[in-house]
Amino acid sequence: MSEARAAIDLLRGAQRVILVTHKDPDGDAIGTLLGLGWALRAMGKQVTLACDDGVPWLLDFLPGSAEVVRKLNDVQADLVVVVDCSDTRRMGQVGAQAAALGAPLMNIDHHATNTHFGQINVVDPEAVSAAELAFEMLEEMGYALDTNVATCLLTGIVTDTRGFRTANVTQNALRMAVRLMDAGASLADITQKALDRRKYRTLAVLGRALGNVRQEDRVIWSAMSRQEWGELDPERSGARPHDFSTILNTVEGAKVAAFFSEMADSRVDVSMRAKPGFDLTVLFGEGKVLAGQGGGHALASGAEIAGPLEEAADRVVWALKALVEQQDPETPKQIPVNGQEISR
Ligand SMILES: [Mn+2]
């Protein structure tokens, strides 16, 4: 029996399900959580939706967003479903709590660095979003999509592909989007609300971040200290580190981009983006600079590392320069010809 088949049987049989998604959630995390939540409820199951950091304001237009809890109190479960998390650390405290209940743990994810931490793992790095996997499972179960489920799942696909612009978007992803639109989801509305909105004060943060930019050896990066954050956006309510790395990655000639953000306890959040053809996930391999500290996709990854800020940035930028050197097809390679080293 395939894992997908076993996963569907588990979903069908469960009565009390806790759904968990990752800390600092994005549109795919919340969209998949809510979409799957609505569908399981429609099947008559008791569903608890949990995320350490709740729902960010950009996603509060999604139906059911007010029901996501940040803590689990006295909940029972016969199944725990974790979505869009590459490892158990990303599940946060609610995830640890849910896992400790002893119910089977189902891991539904599309990160290349997923550690297959579940008893059942529905993991496909080729899927553009976790929402895509949820969609396929619901379809397999014969679930008739309704507008709420469709809106939540399409939000997951739209946000993880930045509006169908990432290198991994296939005809299959577009076909799925059409099906979700057929079921009542509005692509225009989701795009405007989830991708094209900012708070006014985010512009000041963006201004500072851009003022701190540096570029060397085809690596572009910027950093914001805790003090800078505090002056500009004490609640950090509008600005998200991955927005900055995405903007930096648009610079012609830069192959990889990183944004370093100092957090409380002087730890540093690193958000990285790369141009197509590169693979950031090698940084998370055993013995590598970010091993065990994060994960992600070839072109978009993140980590949380030890500070202080400048040292952390130096360490990662150095590794990124080496990565570009190794992976860039345009880099002249020294290849031996007739026993002699020549430049190609
Ligand atoms: Mn995702």
Largest sheet: 6 strands, mixed
List of distinct ligands in this structure: manganese (II) ion
**Which radius of gyration do the C-alpha atoms yield?**
21 Å
Q: How widely separated are the two ends?
A: 50 Å
- Give the overall pLDDT as a whole number: 93
Uncertain spans: 339-344
Number of strands: 13
Give an overview in words.
The protein is α/β, with parallel strands linked by helices and 344 residues long. The chain contains 11 helices and 13 strands. The strands form 3 sheets. The protein has a 6-stranded mixed β-sheet, with helices on both faces. Strands 2-1-3-4-5 form a 5-stranded parallel β-sheet, sandwiched between helices. Strand 6 (214-216) and strand 7 form a beta hairpin. Helix 4 packs antiparallel against helix 5, helix 5 (147-160) runs antiparallel to helix 6 (171-182) and helix 5 (147-160) packs across helix 7 (187-195). The radius of gyration is 21 Å and the shape is globular. The termini are far apart. Bound molecules: manganese (II) ion.
